[in-house]
Specification:
alpha/beta; TIM Barrel; five-stranded parallel beta sheet; 11 helices; 10 strands; binds zinc ion
Amino acid sequence: MIPSLMKPIFNRLSPGGSRGKLQVFIFHRVLAKLDPLLPGEPDAKQFDWMVRLIGRNFNVLPFGRAVSLLKSGSLPKAAACITFDDGYKDNFSVALPILQRHGLTATFFIATSFLDGGRMWNDDIIEAIRLFPDEAFDLKEFGLDQYDLTTPTNQISAIGTILGKLKYLPHGQREATAREIAQRAGVDDRSGLMMGADEVRATRAAGMELGGHTHSHPILKSLTDDDAYSEITRGKIELETILSEPVNVFAYPNGNPQLDLSSRHAEMLCQAGFVAAATTQQAIATVNTDPFMMPRFTPWDRTPTRFGIRCAFALAGRP
Ligand SMILES: [Zn+2]
């Protein structure tokens, strides 16, 4: 698809008003330079063309405002949101200046326990594989396997297998196992991967929207209701304390509506004072979508043409 043709096509597929459709893009990292162990994450150059394409062809809105307009039947044509999950430092240092250059507002969902030096369990594993000095990493004592680390391809495969095996362990056990594996590989407990509170404040001061993502990023369905509610509210209160203003949008950790959350968690969010929440279900939202179950869309194409075609197919209901 020729980039200049995209806008009329998107406008036609996403007519706005009572037939409004909302395309919510989800990012996690924007790397200063490509990382062989993170082949799915865009670098600054790729993110730059992606947001230029999004900015030229969509009406980009903050998530909370977009959901409110969707529900009231007054969404503009080709409405879209740009969202980031977790609170990585590169969101501030790499993505934010690019968004500002294109005059776009994005929404950043922050898991508060990792601010100022923390590291998420998945990054414990990635950094462990990156740093482990030997050709094979024996993790049998953790109920895992022995992993060949001789090539980047093998390292990526080891990371994928280990993350898959640990992801649905009970929350505390998952965190402890990943941290122990990181320590075994000599990974420092402190990390510069995530934003600090000052960077969260500066992101807000730059006109961006901030949202909750729990405190320590558990899969909510793996917790008791009391623990889930406490994770949701703690993350909200800590973020509100940093920002000195209410926080009323949320993204579910992991976010698969079938596996990771239920309608109970949506009720908890409502009770805690949130007005909208994003999942990671790949779809487009319409006026009939539950505002606490807003689907999103992960852009992974490597060329503008393919990216445009994927957006059009998603809007046409064939993601
Ligand atoms: Zn997350």
